[in-house]
Design a protein that fits this description.
It is a single chain. The chain is of the alpha/beta class. It is built from 15 helices and 19 strands. Helix 4 (about 55-85) runs antiparallel to helix 5 (about 95-105) and helix 4 (about 55-85) packs antiparallel against helix 8 (about 245-255). The longest helix is centred in the N-terminal third of the chain and has 31 residues, at about 55-85. Keywords: Hydrolase. It comes from Alteraurantiacibacter palmitatis.
């Protein structure tokens, strides 16, 4: 599922580039919604085959897909109310709760490192990816060609998870590159907790709330692991910690069921600390508007939806509040806009001034950095054909390619574009058989809607700085004339 700018997310509405009813099977690497979110749409479009994944991934998908469908239906209803008032036709949600249930019913589980036959003519094996609970890399073999797909790879020494694994020697490898341009200093868990302790203490000294946007899956549970330890050790004041995400609460229940398999838990219920308050209903969430001096953890991690937006509206304008980012923020997302220093943002139709302290803590990354990605690729080598880099912004991918070419000068490295197709011969570089989309350049970063939101948020203040109402009316008229002139110019060029 595409995530980021509104232009990029609109790609989710386009029909699949293949006939879903002819698809034999799907293999899911993990339950994060950017890797699983279109499964309900796939089922609605006619796919009826098995969806292969690990047992923990299946248990997580039950909640992730249902929540995604609920959000789709809610957002569609909200937007359709606006469209109705404007006299515009309504539109349907991307998928429904019924579609999500149909997709979940297709899930089939397989253990890590167990060979299975996902479809006629294919052999497969899942390897631990160390990213989140249940995550896997996928080994595929068909027609004498072997392929390894990394999925998302976790860093070394990540909380809960073992380090990534895979066998060596493939024709082709597809590797993620989220942090392909970043080399992080090694950070032990105890050091990460000390950094979190410092952020909590500084936020509480300011007197307001510490608001933490966090992914419901894995990031929230890691934060609770560290918060619980700091509270038990009396390293931070005994303040209430509100987990305001129904999905995160359900996901935490899945983690509790698998606690005996996870590292760093001490085989105990780490999520039962008396300072933790799990907020399930809307009334409880709204009640947090009057709270101060508390820690509020809410989804979504990139601030694109969920209850975190409500808490940002009520805390961003407060000088005594702190917003702490602990995860990746995609280009074009609200979280990225705030992190990059926006003075004003637009949230759910409201212009919000940013006065709160904006902080970030990188020790919670669930992705391998450049050094760890290179080590994983080296362990999967030799690669007889091509190495594809995906799941990364252009700068990260280019940095990763440069380092790979320096270390492995004979390796054929590809940076595929959306929509490109390749033939994968055994033992030889991949052959591009179809070109990609040339119309998506503006969708892969900050789009016009990000720029418009920033412009609209500052417009009222800019107009207020003018000396008189007459000057303001003149400025508005000039802006209107510029837009009309630009539109007319473009129309003439199209015709000419």
């Amino acid at each position: 599922m595409f995530q980021g700018s509104r232009t990029l997310e609109r790609l989710n509405l386009e029909p699949f580039a293949f006939d879903p009813s002819r698809l034999d099977a799907v293999i899911v690497t993990h339950a994060h919604i950017d890797h699983s979110g279109l499964l309900p749409k796939l089922a609605a479009a006619g796919f009826t085959g098995p969806i292969w994944c690990t047992g923990p991934t299946r248990d997580l998908l039950e909640h992730m897909l249902a929540d995604a469908a609920r959000l789709q239906e809610y957002e569609t209803e909200r937007h359709n109310r606006r469209r109705d008032r404007a006299g515009e036709d309504p539109f349907d949600p991307l998928f429904t709760a019924e579609d999500a249930a149909a997709a979940f019913a297709l899930c089939r589980t397989v253990d890590l490192e167990e060979e299975f036959l996902p479809a006629p003519g294919f052999r497969a094996r899942l390897w631990n990816a160390g990213h989140i609970l249940g995550s896997a890399s996928v080994e595929l073999e068909a027609g004498g060609v072997s392929v390894l797909c990394s999925g998302d790879l976790g860093p070394d020494n990540k909380a809960f998870q073992r380090d990534p694994q895979a066998r060596a020697g493939f024709d082709h490898v597809i590797c993620e590159s989220t942090y392909g341009g970043t080399v992080r200093e090694p950070l032990a868990m105890e050091e990460r907790r000390r950094l979190l302790q410092a952020e909590v203490e500084a936020a509480l000294v300011r007197g307001g709330n510490l608001v933490i946007p966090a992914f419901a899956l894995e990031r929230t549970q890691e934060l609770l692991l560290d918060m619980g330890r700091l509270l038990s050790d009396r390293a931070i004041p005994p303040v209430p910690v509100f987990i305001d995400s129904p999905l995160a609460i359900r996901i935490t229940g899945v983690f509790a069921r698998y606690a005996h398999e996870l590292e760093d838990t001490g085989k105990s219920d780490i999520f039962a600390h008396p300072a933790f308050h799990f907020v399930t209903d809307v009334a409880g969430s709204v009640a947090l508007n009057s709270v101060s001096g508390a820690i509020i953890i809410a989804a979504s991690g990139m601030c694109e939806g969920g209850r975190i937006r409500h808490h940002l509206v009520h805390n961003l304008h407060r000088r005594d509040s702190t917003v702490l980012f602990v995860g990746y923020q995609a280009q074009g997302s609200l979280g990225r806009v705030i992190m990059e220093g926006a003075q004003r943002v637009r949230i759910s139709g409201q212009d919000v001034r940013v006065r709160a302290q904006i902080r970030s803590l990188q020790g919670y990354s669930a992705h391998a950095d450049q050094t760890e990605l290179l080590a994983w690729i080296a362990e999967a080598s030799p690669i007889a054909g091509s190495l594809f880099l995906d799941h990364g912004e252009q700068e990260a991918q280019e940095a990763m390619r440069r380092e790979l070419q320096r270390r492995f000068p004979q390796l054929n490295v590809r940076l595929p574009e959306i929509g490109e197709e390749y033939l994968l011969p055994p033992g030889e570089p991949a052959l591009r058989s179809a070109t990609g989309r040339t119309d998506l350049g503006d969708a892969l970063g900050r789009d016009w809607q990000n720029d418009y939101a920033a412009f609209a948020s500052s417009l009222k203040q800019d107009l207020a700085r003018l000396q008189s109402d007459r000057e303001r009316k003149e400025a508005i008229a000039q802006m209107a004339r510029i837009l009309q002139s630009y539109a007319a110019h473009k129309e003439r060029r199209r015709r000419g």
